[in-house]
Amino acid sequence: MQTDFYNAYKRHWEDADYLFNDSRWANADHLYGYAAECGLKCLMRQFGMILDPATGSPYPQDRLHINDLWHRYEAYRAGFGAAAYLLPRPNPFVNWRISQRYAKEYWLYENL
């Protein structure tokens, strides 16, 4: 498998938009999380991150989902001196969990 975080970001974002516009918010929310994760990992690679899902990473702290990756991204951004790539605070994905893909839809609506 060849890793392409940018392509994955675009694909997940477009699919999330389709679902959102069809009022399928639970799955849209999940795909927006994947899109954000892929987008940040794309930037982090540009800032020096070594991560390839096919081969793993020498740094386990880089193998994170968006809710935790938000803070890890900052370490790469600051080290690279990329002031133009600041993220908003607080983290809008703080309540996003990969395990929510198993939750009942109504629970997600009530807890987003």
What does this structure look like?
By secondary structure, the chain is mainly alpha-helical. It has one domain. Helices cover 54% and strands 0% of the residues. It contains 4 helices and no strands. It has helices at 5-21, 25-46, 66-80, 105-111. Helix 1 (5-21) runs antiparallel to helix 2 and helix 2 (25-46) packs parallel to helix 3 (66-80). The longest helix is centred in the first third of the chain and has 22 residues, at 25-46. It is globular, with a radius of gyration of 15 Å. It starts with a helix and ends with a helix. The model has no long low-confidence stretch (mean pLDDT 81).
* Share of residues in helices: 40-55%
Instruction: Characterize the quaternary organization of these chains.
Output: single chain
What general form does the structure show?
globular
The SS-based structural class is mainly alpha
The radius of gyration over CA amounts to 15 Å
> Gap between N and C termini, in Å?
33 Å
Instruction: Tell me the major beta sheet.
Output: none
- Count of discrete domains: 1
Query: Approximately how much beta-strand content do the residues carry?
Result: under 5%
Number of strands: 0
In short:
This protein has one domain (5-111). It has four helices and no strands. The protein has helices at residues 5-21, 25-46, 66-80, 105-111.
List keywords for this structure.
112 residues; 4 helices; 0% strand; globular
Per-chain topology:
Layout: H1 5-21, H2 25-46, H3 66-80, H4 105-111
Helix pairs in contact: 1-2, 2-3
